[in-house]
């Protein structure tokens, strides 16, 4: 089985990449991903990796802030 993050980075569809990660991590809301992901999914793997990393960091901050 391929690494989930690697598979998301290689995915040509940003919405699908986000959905796969959300499902695997049990993230129910798409509020943060909707804010973090660009409308146009870049073709450059490094840009995709940065977007995914930034989103997951933002998601963690959101969960901590609103977990109470």
Descriptive notes:
The protein is 68% helix and 0% strand. By secondary structure, the protein is an all-alpha fold. The chain contains four helices and no strands. The mean pLDDT is 89. The radius of gyration is 12 Å and the shape is globular. The chain has one domain (4-65).
Question: What keyword list fits this structure?
Answer:
single chain; 68 residues; mainly alpha
Short description:
With 68 residues, this protein is mainly alpha-helical. It has 4 helices and no strands.
Which sequence of SSEs, written as H and E, runs from N to C?
A: HHHH
Strand content: under 5%
- What would you call the shape? globular
Low-confidence stretches: none
Biggest beta sheet attributes: none
How many domains? The number is 1
How many whole angstroms does the radius of gyration measure?
Answer: 12 Å
**Number of DSSP helical runs:** 4
Calculate the terminal CA-CA distance, rounded to whole Å.
36 Å
What structural category arises from helix and sheet content? mainly alpha
């Amino acid at each position: 089985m391929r690494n989930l993050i690697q598979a998301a980075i290689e995915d040509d569809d940003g919405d699908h990449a986000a959905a796969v990660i959300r499902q695997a991590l049990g993230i129910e809301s798409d509020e943060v991903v909707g804010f973090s992901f660009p409308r146009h999914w870049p073709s450059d793997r490094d840009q995709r990796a940065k977007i995914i990393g930034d989103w997951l960091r933002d998601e963690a901050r959101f969960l901590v802030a609103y977990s109470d």
